[in-house]
Design goal:
9 helices, five-stranded parallel sheet, 2 domains, single chain
Amino acid sequence: MGEPVRAVIADDHPVALAGLEEVLQRAGIAVVGRARTGREALSLLRQFRPDVAVVDVALPELSGLEVTRRARELGVPVVLVSMYDVEALMREAVKAGAAAFVSKMALPQEIVDAVRSAAEGKALLNGAASPEATHHTSLTPREREVVKLLAEGRKLREIAEILCRSPATVRAQKASAMRKLGVHSTAELIRRARELGIFPP
């Protein structure tokens, strides 16, 4: 086995910081530094030169976006996290050069996957991408499952049985995914999801 991924994490809320550390350590990711402010985060990045930084957008002293911009100069990829999962914020994350943008409401595994991808040099957000290309980061894990099952040719009622949800809930999740990806039919939804890499062709 190779060396574990080394991460610096930054969040001004102690409970959130502790929770994030627990999630990463359980996944075998070594947390080498913890920061409560943007300036402290930058200091730790310079000190440890970690494989990845996980940074809250709303940090005091220096925002997570500013930390991301400066982290690029150090060659440290950043996964931005936020309570807010909005298109405008994701655009700013792209401009700042973040490798990924993850909602704090995401499943723990989604955060772990984003951290591992960033550490491996895989950017889930791309500064050269169109704004539409960042929409897939806002799909919830359940919405992604619905889209994948639709791509397999499953009907809504069948998907509801597989996911143990009501047909109305699945229909709402499909509609939400279509809205986020800016499409108007099931065929467009599947095609756009494949184009954005939500699942393989």
